[in-house]
Amino acid sequence: MTDAATPTPSAHAATSTAGASTAATSTTPVVRIAGVGKTFGTETGGVRALDGIDLAIGQGEFVSLIGPSGCGKSTLLRLIGDLTSPTDGTVEVNGKPARRARLDRDYGMVFQAPVLMEWRTVAKNIELPLELMGYKKAERLRRSSELLKLVELDGFESRHPWQLSGGMQQRVAIARALAFDPKLLLMDEPFGALDEMTRERMNLELMRIWTRTRTTVVFVTHSIPEAVFLSTKVVVMSPRPGRVAKVIDIDLPQPRTVETREQERYFELVTEVREALRRKDGSAPVGDEAMDAALRDAERIRAEGLA
Amino acid sequence: MSFAAARRRSASWLPPLVVFVAVLVLWEQLFLALDVKTFLIPRPSIIWAALGEQWSTLQRGLIYTGTEALLGLLAGVTLGTLAGLATARWATIRETLVPLGTGMSTIPIIAFAPIMINWFGFESQLPRITVVALMTFFPVMVNTIRGLTQVDPAAIELMDSYAASPFQVLRKVRIPNALPYWFTALRIAVTLSVIGAVVGEFFGGPLYSLGIYVTNQTGSFKYPNAWAAIVMACVLGIGLYLVAVAAERIALPWRRSEGSATD
User: Fold this and answer.
1) N or C: which end of chain B has fewer CB within 10 A?
2) DSSP designation for B2
3) This prediction's pTM
């Protein structure tokens, strides 16, 4: 983060396009998932949420997990974060078991809801992880004001969450996740509750932040355009049980801007992702209603996982 | 504090005050016109006169009964909070205590007052203090447990993602989350404490204690005096309630003001 304030955009473009194709193989991956399966519930009445997942995510990549509901994309993210544990296989983060990585605070997490503490001001919400990690007060203040600038919320530090709009709240949540400079950022449909216009603006915001921080990101979404726009790699998943159907490299140039969405290549990639989803799903691509119903389904499975 | 904010603040207490004064005036005039007998319900001016006449006795009673309410409240709230904190930690104890607590709060604890006089004696304030403590204990305990446990599961997950210790979760999430619940319980407890103290005195206490004073004066047909004592009990209840509300405002500043979202 400290050295991220100065680099030139062209340098990013060069490293990231190279990174997208080579990082996963040439260096130790940030996330390595091998033979992972997950069954919820008992042996008799269990639901197989994930099966035979192999995935490696390299340093500095932005990987989206996309798929219809019940494909276990959120579960996969939660496995990486050690918020749930696999039934089979291994999950490694930064070369160590996911549990160790969680205890070492190797990642920051952003949920669909901002999950801000209403009794804390914006700045205090951002400082929460720093308090838990024993940062000194002066350092906490320095970090929170730096992050408020990064998410363009400077001037809002002493507001309370309910005084902010949904998009602003989610920006606070992103700032909080980045507060301790984690090597990995896990995002579970962070913009799923926002309207289309706010979502597109938040996508641009996120790209701007990512370009500056170069944090490795794993991003769960059910929006094809969002996945293509943000990612260096899209992992298309198929449901029941959740499997990796296809991994698509997104070779759009960096940095991603408003113009990115108007490029010919962007539409080709959107089509490619859509077809990959359709092929594995049987018939047509998943429509909005089917998606909503399936999402509720996924929420239920997730809740069961929590219990 | 801007002028508009000051006006908003005054606006919140002004209407009830106007209504209160209007009711007093109406009560006075209507009862005078209809010639309602004093032994039924005296007019405000008669109660006011009785208040002045009996002031020294009523003042002693206010302090005596108020002490009982306050000490009982202190004991009940402290023990209820501690019990809540202790049991919120262990699910099995909680699952037994919450239904038990809810059940216990339906018991008319006031009925134990004569038995407690038997235990502690007529001279002692302990029977009323114990009744008040018991009456306030359960709502405080139940609400404390509720506040500590009814936490957004996502907030717990967030804390897990930071590898926060159970103590950190308690301090940073559960306790702040419980505060509004706890203050709701405090308001209930404050109201209960005055009822417990005054009604507890019906079964015994010094002549000047508010409960005994009301029964004695009614027994000797001095109704305005009894009403004056009731006014004192009201003052006690409202006073304690206002203290609780003020404490809540100081402790939960983020809930005080309303604002609109920007962006």
Assistant:
1) N
2) -
3) 0.78
